[in-house]
Write a structure and sequence with these properties.
Blueprint: H1 2-18, H2 20-24, H3 28-45, H4 50-61, H5 84-106, E1 115-120, H6 125-135, E2 137-142, E3 152-157, E4 160-165, H7 170-192, E5 200-205, H8 209-217, H9 219-225, E6 228-233, E7 241-245, E8 248-255
Parallel strand pairs: 1-2, 5-6
Antiparallel strand pairs: 1-4, 3-4, 5-8, 7-8
Length: 256
Amino acid sequence: TKEIFELIEILSKWYIRRSRERFVNGDLEALNTLYYVLVEISKLLAPFAPFVSESAYLTLTAGELKESVHLEDYPIFESKLLDEDLLKNMNTVREICSLGLNIRDENRIKLRQPLSKAYISIPDKEMLEIVKGELNVKKVEYSKKKVDKKDHITHEMGDIFVTMDLSITKELAEEGMVNEIVRGLQLARKERGCEMGEYVSIRYHSEDKEIIEVIKKHRENLKESIHLKEIKQVDRIDDGKRINVNENFLVIDIVK
């Protein structure tokens, strides 16, 4: 059962998160792959969690397959389906990303704060792009050896490593603030019960001049990315949602 739960963890924490945009865009290959894997997992779990697996199976298949997961044949491992090189590269990428996230955690830099550059020990261009997205850095380069520069931190494990430039420019800091605001507004929409794609208006108040400047500067981008009809600054909000932005905060109120 350990391997089954490892599969579920990798699926939820890696594949689904990495493929979220493909799902939203209706990519049939991504959706069909996810469907297949979820159905197979329900079969794998059937002997160990009969009720949970049955519920998952029936929800997924909607009566299109067998009447019960317990009437299905147990999945058989087929080694011919494995792409060993891809699996090896992806495991290496996940380890590198884990090292990079540890660097962020130890230096108290949130993932929503973009950084300028990272160096990693694998040359594969596709893998470089994955690391770029996972670690939220503007550029990732292959390097044969660790980079020793000011504000650069390296973590390594065996023969793999990642070096990250932790210096944050004014532009990067501003982008990080925008990301924090977007995240806060998205959570507020969810808590308010807004439907996906539903346009709403937002009133906001903050005592922090920098937050106000950033919102005004990125007003149109915020409206587009969070489906806002209007975003309006007001002098006071008595019962609103507080959003922390770095060491400061703003208060918002959603109006449907």
